[in-house]
Design a protein that fits this description.
This protein is of the alpha+beta class. The chain folds into three domains: 3-229, Heat Shock Protein 90 (2-Layer Sandwich), CATH 3.30.565; 234-371, Ribosomal Protein S5, domain 2; 506-627, Up-down Bundle (Four Helix Bundle (Hemerythrin (Met), subunit A)), CATH 1.20.120. Helices cover 37% and strands 18% of the residues. It has 22 helices and 23 strands. The strands form four sheets. A nine-stranded mixed sheet has the order 1-6-5-4-7-3-2-8-9, covered by helices on one side. Strands 16-15-18-17-20-19 form a six-stranded mixed sheet. A five-stranded mixed sheet has the order 10-11-14-12-13, sandwiched between helices. The longest helix is centred in the middle third of the chain and has 24 residues, at 343-366. It is elongated.
């Protein structure tokens, strides 16, 4: 690129998502604007950490300025605030990429939600998502960014008023620092207090006091900066020396959230491998919890030098955990390949995972109410480990909580379930679906309720997979109430006066046989049911087939074929079935219409549409006309 090309100012438009985001911020949707400073300081700290890492291989990047720092400069008279760092800096192309686009996954979801949020909720959203640099437009009518990448002579200058476009050009003499980035905020009139020392120090100590880079403050642009945060690493301190407030501040700075951590795990491992881990369970669901990429959010440091946030310290079913690991044993020049192959890192991953799960077990034992909130937020993700992590499956089963036919509004553990199993009960029964309310009203549950047999209600998509992984709990297998035989004959009903389940009458047995003939193309079998007490019919999957909910999930994802034909179960003691059986061969047309209507009724009870809506309507019309004479 020629010197003329580099020097030429260029005006560009923001990408569409950035424009929407800036519009929301410029129009003051958010009531708590303090967040902008934390975001700019976090960006500056990241830039310093990146330089520290690159300087391992290339010490010349530091030059004579080896002490990394962040400096705030305020000018109340001109309503100007500068956030400057001497970190890695940016080239012109990097500046356009970093400040003109949003590449982080989940942006669209954030913008859609933030667009309808007001006040405090909006402030929480911006913190949870961590939109970083763009938060500056909540307080500034114009933002200028001057940056010079370490080891390069050229510097670039970026400027925008947040109205949809920006300009970028070569920086003039004195506009950019010798190395790093200088962000200058020309504050709005109602944001002038952000140029006052007292206010800035308050925000820094509350939200950014524990970033691993010293922060200094200058009363005026040309004044000598004074340190207001020493850049000490919180995680390097003994747990006893860190207050709950300090942990919360650090968590918010690290995770980019505004909530309180639900659990803090801080420990130092010594012995064969030495490392420090500091991990937080968020108090609310992060935006990217169900991100299909499922990447973790644990940072890796080596002797306080940031290495990467892509080391996947924790398994993906713990991806909601935020935190870091600082190792004393790993080499500083750790490459991506070495990260993937390092036996030391493998040992660290195992140790941190075991510790996090152990702390969850302790929380579940000591504070059931607090653990219930954790499970409300992250249970569907934790359950992924039941089929991904064979080694810890037993531990995860102990942590799992379920809604059941006996739990009411609360949660039940498998230990609770096992303690209430009925005499002769040989399996842990479950019903999988997509809606808890529909599961609770499933006709397939009737026989289990009549016998006091508790059934797990599993509404999450992941449930249909882990229950098929050959799992058992204390020797009891998991069995679907919508698949195969119910095996309830040995478990007595709670009401001793209820029907004992005697064989169907000859007429009902004949009706069931006729149903099997009429519906031969739709069902694999028709049989008398042990599980029905109130409904006339229901559908179940054959013993050797897939559970019906898993079959639906696979079909929706394009991975399922036609699927096995279901089994139609008939309640031989239901008034409707007895009445239809009494018709016998006297009215074959009515019997055939009734057969198809019973099948369609079973489909509707299962949350599906009639097999042939037009034929269903015609049959229903014929039956209604007959009933009206």
């Amino acid at each position: 690129m020629s010197t003329d090309q580099v020097a030429a100012p260029e005006s560009r438009s923001f990408e569409a998502d950035v424009s929407r985001l800036l519009h929301m911020m410029v129009h003051s949707v958010y009531s708590d604007r303090d967040v902008f400073l934390r975001e700019l300081i976090s960006n500056a700290a990241d830039a310093c950490e990146k330089l520290r890492f690159e300087a391992i291989a290339n010490p010349g990047l530091l030059g004579a300025d080896s002490k990394l720092r962040i400096t705030l400069k305020a000018d109340p008279e001109s309503r100007r605030l500068v956030v400057e760092d001497n970190g890695i800096g940016m080239t012109r192309d990097e500046m356009v990429e970093a400040l003109g686009t949003i590449a982080r996954s989940g942006t669209k979801a954030f913008i859609d939600r933030a667009g309808s949020a007001q006040g405090a909720e909006g402030a929480q959203l911006i913190g949870q998502f961590g939109v970083g640099f763009y938060s500056a437009f909540m307080v500034a009518e114009r933002v200028d960014v001057a940056s010079r990448r370490a080891g390069q002579d050229e510097a670039a200058f970026w400027s925008s008023d947040g109205q949809g476009s920006y300009t970028v050009r070569a920086a003039e003499a004195g506009e950019a620092p010798e190395r790093g980035t200088r962000v200058t905020l020309h504050l709005m009139e109602d944001a002038a207090s952000y140029a006052e020392r007292f206010n800035l120090e308050r925000i820094v100590k509350a939200q950014s006091g524990h970033v691993p880079v010293p922060i200094a403050f200058a009363e005026k642009p040309d004044a000598e900066p004074q340190e207001i945060a020493d850049g000490s690493a919180l995680w390097a301190k003994p747990r006893a020396q860190v207050s709950a407030e300090e942990y919360t501040d650090f968590y918010r700075s690290l995770a980019g959230q505004f909530d309180e951590p639900a659990l803090t795990v801080h420990f130092r491992a010594e012995g064969r491998h030495e490392y420090t881990a500091l991990a937080f369970l968020p108090g609310s669901k992060p935006f990217d919890l169900l991100d299909p990429e499922r990447s973790g959010r644990m940072k890796l440091y080596v002797r306080r030098v940031f290495i990467t946030d892509e080391a996947e310290i924790l398994p993906r079913y713990l991806r909601f955990v935020r935190g870091l690991v600082d190792s004393s044993d790993l080499p500083l020049n750790l490459s991506r390949e070495m990260i993937q192959e390092s036996p030391i890192l493998a040992a660290i991953k195992k140790g941190v995972t075991n510790r996090v799960l152990g702390e969850l077990e302790k929380l579940a034992k000591d504070d059931a109410e607090a653990y219930a909130k954790v499970w409300d937020n992250f249970g569907p993700v934790l359950k992924e480990g039941l089929y991904e992590d064979f080694e810890r499956r037993g531990q995860l089963l102990g942590l799992a909580r379920f809604k059941t036919t006996s739990s009411g509004e609360g949660w039940r553990s498998l230990k609770d379930y096992a303690a209430s199993m009925r005499e002769n009960q040989t399996a842990i029964y479950y019903a999988a679906g997509s809606d808890l309310a529909r599961l609770e009203s499933s006709p397939q549950l009737e026989g289990f309720r009549a016998r006091g047999v508790e059934v797990l209600l599993l509404p999450d998509p992941v449930d249909s997979f882990w229950v098929t992984a050959g799992i058992d709990y204390e020797g009891k297998p998991f069995k679907s109430v919508t698949q195969g035989g119910a095996d309830l004959s040995l478990i007595p009903k709670l009401d001793t006066n209820a029907d004992s389940g005697a064989a169907p009458s000859e007429a009902v047995a004949g009706f069931i046989a006729s149903l099997k003939t009429v519906l031969a193309d739709q069902v694999a079998d028709v049989r008398a049911s042990e599980r029905l007490t109130e409904s006339p019919v229901c559908l179940v999957a054959p013993e050797s087939g897939l559970d019906r909910q898993l079959e639906r999930i696979l079909a929706q994802s394009g991975r399922g074929g036609l699927g096995a034909k279901p089994v139609l179960e008939v309640n031989p003691n239901h008034d409707l079935i007895i009445a239809l059986a009494a018709i016998g061969e006297e009215d074959r047309a009515l019997s055939e219409d009734a057969a198809h209507l019973l099948y369609d009724e079973a489909r509707v009870l299962d949350g599906e549409l009639p097999a042939d809506p037009k034929a269903f309507s015609q049959r229903l019309g014929r039956v209604m006309r007959r009933s009206l004479g």
